[in-house]
Amino acid sequence: VHLVGGHGFLKYTDESGKKVSAFGPPFIDFAGSCVVHLVGGIGALFGAITVGPREGRFTEQDQTQFDAHSVPLCVLGTFFLFFGWYGFN
Question: Which pLDDT belongs to residue 66?
Answer without folding.
Answer: 62
